[in-house]
Amino acid sequence: MLKNSSIISASPEIMGGTPVFTGTRVPVQTLLDYLMAGESIDDFLGGFPTVTRKQVLAFLEEAGRQVIAMVA
Q: Cα-atom radius of gyration of the chain, to the nearest Å?
C-alpha cells in the first residue's frame, strides 16, 4: 500500500488530506492529470521540482503492481 509511505502521504494538515508526494504539497492526482493530458514525466518534474524522479517512478511501479494484482 502506498498511503503514508516514502512515496505518498496524506494528512489532514497538508492539502486537507489529499494524497501528495511525501515531503511536498504536490497532489499525486496532478501527475496523473499530466500523464493523461499527454505530458511527459519530465514536463511534470519541470513544473514541480519538489517531487523527485525516484518518487514518480516508484509511484508508477507500485500503482502498476496494485492494478495487476487486482485483476490477477
A: 12
Residue 12 to residues 2, 15, 27, Cα–Cα distance (Å)? 17, 7, 13
Q: Which cell numbers hold the place of 4?
A: 503514508
| 51, 24 contact by CB (below 8 A) | yes
Q: Which positions ≥6 away from 59 have C-beta within 8 Å?
A: 2, 7, 8, 21, 28, 31
Residue 9, beta-bridge partner list? 20
Is residue 14 within 8 A of residue 21, CB to CB? The reply is no
- State whether residue 23 is helix, strand or coil: coil
Residue ranges of the chain whose pLDDT lies below 70? 1-4
Helix, strand or coil, per DSSP, at residue 6:
coil
